[in-house]
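Supplementary Text 2. Reproducibility record for the structural model of the 167-residue chain.

All settings were left at their defaults, and a single model was retained for analysis rather than an ensemble. We include the record here because the model underlies the residue-level annotations in Supplementary Table 4.
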Amino acid sequence: MDHYKALEADPTESESALRRRYLSLARKYHPDQLVSESDAAKEEAGERMRAVNEAWAVLGDKARRLRYDQTLFESNIETAKEEWRPFDDSYVPEYEEPVMPGRARPPKWMTVAPPLFIVSGAVITVIGGILGGAVFAFGLILILLGAISFVLAPVAVMVMSARSERP
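Retained model, structure tokens:
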């Protein structure tokens, strides 16, 4: 039997609040208050009064209430341990590609092109320095393209990401 339910109380209520509840229920269910009621109603009220008295005997005493609250706490922990499951295994999906809005992946060429332009431009510039003329200028153009692509690649990925978020 839950003594708090018997007193129609909450476990966080103060001792004075519990006392008021007990007195209210005792007035309501005491046999002397039910003189004009039927025998069945008197019997039901008597059972209810015994439960109220038993609850008050435990909850009205500070030490007994503390022990009772401790046993309630321990039983709640045991119940929680029995019902706890580490994860919900009721749903096992087929293989699904995770959907991550705003996380568009750039094409492979976009990640390879900037360093490729810069490295090949540096090599060609060195060769052009030896040979001279148009080869040197072509090397400088490749280095410039590499620098521009380093700047434009993140912008392109942001645009792709924004497009993937649209419905």
